[in-house]
Amino acid sequence: MKLHQVSSIFLAQHGEVPRGPVAVPGCGTGHDVRAWAQAGFQAVGFDLAPSAIRLAREKTPANVPASFEQRNFLGDDPPTSFDWLFEHTLFCAIDPEQRDAYVRAVDRWLKPEANFLAVFYMIPDKDGPPYGTTRDEILRRFSPRFDLLQEWIPRSYPNRTGLEWMTWWQRKS
Predict the structure, then answer these.
(1) Percent helix, strand and coil across the chain, each to the nearest 5
(2) What is the C-alpha separation between 29 and 117, in angstroms, rounded?
(3) Pick from 77, 84, 89, 64: nearest CA to 156
(4) How far is CA 13 from CA 16, 17, 40, 114, 128, in A?
(5) How many Cβ atoms sit within 10 Å of the Cβ of residue 110?
(6) What is the largest CA-CA distance in the chain?
(7) How many Å apart are CA 137 and CA 122, to the nearest integer?
(8) pLDDT in tens, 152-171
(9) Count of CB atoms within 10 A of residue 172's CB?
(10) For the whole model, what pTM was predicted?
């Protein structure tokens, strides 16, 4: 397991969490989607870029039950409601003016009382992408719709040590 695969680390440390469908928006080449699928979840990765979806499919062995769809997470309706949504710095990749739409999308894609696991890039940069954020902004945006269950600094890329904040939320019913 590579250090930057925070989803793999989380899943290894939380083997007891109930399995169910998980959405991974902004999945890129799909390593997180594959990690969730290999842990027994019905994992679907979503990305805007056709090239990312193509690469994700090419990199996924036939015996890994992960699937990938080109879809606009912010604007499209979800194909189904999910028990989990995992994202790794997607919030910080989008224009800050789209952050309200992002919070609404997370809410829309999840079932009531479902889980939202996210890694936020805590940098001061406002000229991104990536665009920085703060703990206060995250709490202000998500707390009305989600309860924060846990938070920690994940093991990640060496150049991001201490710059990422991982959160585990539950959607309010």
Answers:
(1) 30, 30, 40
(2) 19
(3) 89
(4) 9, 10, 14, 19, 32
(5) 23
(6) 42
(7) 11
(8) 988 766 666 678 899 999 99
(9) 12
(10) 0.93
Tally of residues, the chain: 173
What contacts 22, CB < 8 A, 6 or more positions away? Answer: 36, 41, 42, 43, 44, 82, 83, 84, 85, 86
- What is the distance between the terminal CA atoms of the chain, rounded to a whole angstrom? 35
- d(C-alpha 166, C-alpha 145), whole Å: 18
Neighbours of 82 (CB within 10 A): 25
pLDDT digits (tens, 9 = 90+) for 27-62: 999 999 999 999 999 999 999 999 999 999 999 999
pLDDT digits (tens, 9 = 90+) for 71-124: 999 999 999 999 999 998 899 999 999 999 999 999 999 999 999 999 998 888
Q: Using CA atoms, how far apart are residues 21 and 73, in angstroms rounded to an integer?
A: 16
Q: What are 143's two structure tokens?
A: 């707390």
**Distance separating alpha carbons of residues 9 and 49, to the nearest angstrom:** 27
- Report the distance separating Cα 110 and Cα 65, nearest Å: 21
